[in-house]
Write a structure and sequence with these properties.
Layout: E1 7-10, E2 16-18, E3 21-23, E4 28-33, E5 39-41, E6 44-46, E7 50-55, E8 61-63, E9 66-68, E10 73-77, E11 85-87, E12 90-92, E13 97-98, E14 111-112, E15 121-122, E16 126-128, H1 135-138, E17 152-153, E18 160-161, E19 178-180, E20 184-186, E21 189-195, E22 203-207, E23 213-214, E24 220-223, E25 227-237, E26 240-253, E27 262-265, E28 268-271, E29 273-279, E30 287-291, E31 297-298, E32 304-307, E33 311-321, E34 324-339, E35 348-351, E36 354-356, E37 359-365, E38 373-377, E39 383-384, E40 390-393, E41 397-407, E42 410-423, E43 434-437, E44 440-442, E45 445-451, E46 459-463, E47 469-470, E48 476-479, E49 483-493, E50 496-509, E51 520-523, E52 526-529, E53 531-537, E54 545-549, E55 555-556, E56 562-565, E57 569-579, E58 582-596, E59 608-611, E60 614-617, E61 619-625, E62 633-637, E63 643-644, E64 650-653, E65 657-667, E66 670-685, E67 694-697, E68 700-702, E69 705-711, E70 719-723, E71 729-730, E72 736-739, E73 743-753, E74 756-769, E75 785-788, E76 791-793, E77 796-802, E78 810-814, E79 820-821, ...
Parallel strand pairs: 1-4, 2-5, 3-6, 4-7, 5-8, 6-9, 7-10, 8-11, 9-12, 10-13, 12-16, 20-26, 28-34, 36-42, 44-50, 52-58, 60-66, 68-74, 76-82
Antiparallel strand pairs: 14-15, 17-18, 19-21, 21-24, 22-23, 22-25, 25-26, 27-29, 29-32, 30-31, 30-33, 33-34, 35-37, 37-40, 38-39, 38-41, 41-42, 43-45, 45-48, 46-47, 46-49, 49-50, 51-53, 53-56, 54-55, 54-57, 57-58, 59-61, 61-64, 62-63, 62-65, 65-66, 67-69, 69-72, 70-71, 70-73, 73-74, 75-77, 77-80, 78-79, ...
Length: 862
């Protein structure tokens, strides 16, 4: 872990921090602050500023930790830390600060067992230094038991380690060796190095030959440039170290352009022809571009393409990698000899479609797929086999017309219901009418027009007044330009046409301009005077004018000005951005700091407040930074595991407790930290609506069946309303009810308190059977379940569904990541990549059944 700050336990109790590697942090490895009864074991804190820090913390245990090569100090125990036990740790640091406190211990009783430096007894700690002059490095062990013959008096404290560890007489320095998963390849080349040293190493130092290094045991390193690299590993333990060097071990080459090749199958056939293409290019291509020869392309590595027309097709593939691209063209690679016969798709039109009897109608076939035969049914008992027949309707009525089109591949039928309308009186012209919505707004404006003409028009002609027209009955039209538009509709049928015009009907305005949002940055924001600063406008909303106030009495109207601060001081900068819609101002207080040349910049003096400081959860607290000294960065620690880099954040506390607030403020001179202990007090949770829940026993049996219901609702309900599904109810908390009649019953519970109510329903929960089935054997559930989605990137939320039969009454899910649930249909979040095996056990009165689905959920890294 290299996050800059390490692992913090603040106001923590009963926690375990184990098997972590904390390295290269500028502050701490592990911190205990105001914490008690925690266990810190099996961790490595190396190359940090401070290894392990115990501040105002009591009754904690530190054992089995390796604390080495920390630049400021290895272990710090403050004088307000009491009754802590520190044993079996490997300390190898130049500085250790251990103050007295009360009741601390630095060894246990001498007990047989393997200690941290592979000796045969447990007792105290190994107290070494990197230069080999530490107590444990030089202590005498005449009997060879790995325990110093004399106690170690811990400097600066009242304590001694009575059983300090020393290197066992039989322990030797390791014999360094290593291997890697690859030793050559194109750049960038990722290599996994594996330590193969013999003899129990406790520290590793790798040199990869390209100017980079690592202290991990098995590091992964990426070589970005071509070349031959010599790799060195130094493996160390308390007895010494050994170095292994492999000359020109890693060979990294410059990638070559791909050598393109491919095939496709089949290469001939009737259209439509589906062809699967396979890329067999060498040289590790990373991108592909196929040209199928019919005007279409694809970027898939192995595409499938459908050719619709006969012909000979030339295929071209371009493959690309980091070194460049190559193209291969295979001329006339595919041959489509013809089109397989297709069943036709029947279609037709007629004119006219309405009129008085006798009405002569001409039908026009517009079927596709090359039909060879036609069968018409005119709806009045007559038929025709002509492709484009004429037919006379002699009697008034409404007629449905059917056409069946046929060829060698088959037939297809289309029916137009009530298509022909024959009247007995002279047809009437339609009366055109319409409406629109909306009729006004800003451009671009989408308008839907609705025809409300009477007289059965058969065609429509719209003119939208902006040069556009439509023949659709109910069209949609977009007005792109501001203006007032006159709309005309002409409605037509066999008897004639009618036109209606609405003048100035549609009014379109311009889109209202938006006031800009002012924003800016500057570089640098601090330095010696005279200080030249470049300001950059990042306002949104298209400002057209800018007004800068640099805080030293000067101004500018340039969008991105440069300004020189001639006098030392701290300056507040303001930008006002303006356009036709208005203006907006952004102010950055104490944004620029100019100091006199030769003087030393001062770190900020941190201070802050928050309000409110107490209340019920969830509690929203607003924090205000009042730091002096022109800070330019802030880091808040809210004491509940969350942080913020805002200057004045608002934070919501979800749980009751006392919270320590810490603010780190930084400027060019450095950073300062202020902690306010138990600053925020969350005393409880405001009243919440209850969450209804219940169980019953038994849930199945012969009628009459007595069932005891047990309320398990949360949220402190004060009233209960039961519906037993057989027409009866109860307001008792945990009632007993008798089911007199055989059947399956759904039970509902509503739980209520002052904050509201909540209802839970269990469908088909109670099963009562008739007495004639008495003596039959109940059946275990038949289990079934599924989850969705079954794959994705972390974090992945999966919904699980139980579909078991046999009236199960209890469920136990195991999600494969160490967590479980007893909800029937749970949701679960997978936070880490991996393949997860799911197990569900369902239970009823007859027993339990389980199913396991191996590697059922697959989660990839984000």
């Amino acid at each position: 872990m290299s996050n800059g700050r390490g692992i913090y336990l603040v106001s923590s109790k009963g926690c375990t921090v184990s098997k972590n590697t904390i390295t290269n942090n500028g502050y701490y490895g592990i911190v205990l602050g105001s914490s008690s009864k925690n266990t810190i074991s099996g961790n490595t804190a190396s190359n940090d500023a401070r290894g392990i820090h115990i501040g105002s913390s009591d009754d904690n245990t530190l054992s089995g930790n390796t604390v080495t090569s920390n630049s400021v100090l290895g272990l710090y125990v403050c004088g307000l830390s009491d009754r802590n036990l520190v044993y079996n740790n490997y300390f190898n640091n130049t500085v250790m600060i251990i103050k007295s406190g009360s009741g601390n211990a630095y060894n246990t009783a001498k007990t047989a067992g393997k200690n941290i430096i592979h000796g045969t007894y447990l007792g105290g700690n190994f107290w070494g230094t990197p230069d080999g002059s530490g107590f444990s490095n030089t202590a005498v062990d005449a009997d060879g038991d790995g325990i110093s013959d004399s106690a170690y008096s811990i400097p600066g404290s009242i304590y001694s380690d009575s059983l300090p560890l020393v290197i066992p007489s039989n322990q030797a320095a390791p014999d360094a060796d290593f291997r890697s998963n690859v030793t050559s390849g194109d750049m960038p080349l990722g290599v996994l190095f594996t330590d193969a040293s013999t003899g129990t190493s406790t520290a590793w130092n790798w040199n990869f030959g390209d100017g980079t290094s690592s202290t991990q045991k098995n590091p992964v390193h990426t070589y970005s440039a071509a070349g031959s690299y010599t790799v060195t590993l130094t493996a160390s333990n308390a007895a010494g170290n050994d170095t292994k060097t492999k000359e020109n071990y890693i060979i990294v080459t410059t990638p070559q352009k791909p050598v393109v090749n491919f095939w496709g199958a089949p290469r001939s056939g009737d259209a439509p022809l589906s062809v699967a293409f396979k890329d067999i290019t060498t040289g590790v291509p990373t991108a592909w571009n196929w040209d199928f020869g019919d005007g279409t392309t694809s970027a898939i590595q192995n595409p499938t393409h459908i050719y619709s027309a006969a012909g000979r097709y030339t295929i071209k593939l371009t493959a690309t990698n980091a070194a460049g691209s190559n193209t291969l063209t295979k001329y006339y690679y595919l041959t489509l000899t013809g089109t397989a016969a297709q069943t036709p798709v029947a279609a037709f039109s007629a004119s006219p479609t309405s009129g008085n009897s006798s009405l002569d109608v001409t039908f026009a076939d517009s079927s596709t797929g090359t039909p060879t035969a036609w069968s018409w049914n005119f709806g009045d008992g007559t038929t025709s086999a002509i492709q484009n027949p004429k037919h006379t309707y002699s009697t008034a009525g409404t007629y449905t017309v059917t056409l069946t089109a046929t060829n060698a591949a088959g037939s297809n039928t289309v029916t137009k219901t009530s298509y022909i309308i024959v009247g007995t009186t002279a047809a009437q012209k339609p009366v055109a009418a319409f409406s629109a919505s909306p009729t006004s707004g800003n451009s671009p404006m989408d308008v839907t027009f609705a025809d409300s003409s009477t007289g059965t028009p058969t065609t429509w002609s719209w003119n939208f007044g902006d040069g556009a027209t439509s023949a659709i009955q109910n069209p949609k039209h977009t007005y792109s330009t501001a203006g007032t538009y006159t709309v005309t509709l002409t409605a037509t049928n066999a008897a004639g046409s009618n036109t209606v015009t609405k003048s100035g009907y549609i009014i379109v305005g311009t889109t209202a301009a938006q006031t800009p949002i002012a924003a800016f940055s500057a570089s640098p924001t601090s330095g010696n005077s005279p200080l030249d600063v470049t300001f950059t406008d990042s306002s949104t909303g298209t400002p057209t004018a800018w007004s800068w106030n640099f805080g030293d009495g000067t101004n500018s109207a340039i969008q991105n000005p440069k300004h020189t601060y001639s006098t030392a001081g701290t300056y507040t900068v303001t930008l006002t951005a303006t356009n036709a819609a208005g203006s907006n101002t952004a102010t950055k207080t104490s944004y620029i700091t100019a100091i006199t040349a030769g003087t030393t910049a001062q770190k900020p003096v941190v201070n802050f407040w928050g309000t409110p400081r107490s209340g019920n959860a969830p509690l929203s607290v607003t924090f205000k930074d009042i730091t002096t000294g022109a800070p330019t960065a802030w880091n808040w620690d809210f004491g509940d595991g969350t942080t913020s880099t805002d200057q004045n954040p608002t934070h919501i506390y979800s749980a009751a407790g006392n919270y320590v607030i810490k603010l780190t403020a930084s400027n060019a001179a450095g950073s300062t930290v202020l902690s306010k202990y138990n600053y925020i007090t969350v005393t409880g949770t405001a009243a919440q609506t209850p969450v209804a829940a219940f169980s019953a026993s038994p849930t199945s049996g012969n009628s009459p069946m007595d069932v005891t219901f047990t309320d398990s609702s949360t949220g402190t309900p004060t009233a209960w309303s039961w519906n037993f599904g057989d027409g009866s109810s109860s307001t008792q908390k945990s009632p007993t009810h008798t089911y007199s009649t055989a059947g399956t019953y759904t039970v509902t519970l509503t739980a209520t308190n002052a904050a509201g109510s909540n209802t839970v329903t269990k469908t088909s929960y109670i099963t009562a059977t008739t007495a004639t089935t008495a003596g039959t054997t109940a059946q275990k559930p038949v289990i079934n379940c599924w989850g969705s989605p079954r794959s994705g990137t972390a974090p992945l939320t999966v919904t699980f569904k139980d579909s078991s039969t046999g009236s199960p009454t209890a469920w136990n899910w195991s999600f494969g990541d160490g967590t479980s649930s007893t909800v029937q249909n749970p949701k679960h979040i997978y936070s880490a990549a991996g393949s997860y095996t799911i197990k569900l056990t369902v239970t009823n009165t007859a027993g339990s059944t389980a199913t396991t689905k191996y590697n059922y959920i697959v989660v990839a890294k984000a």
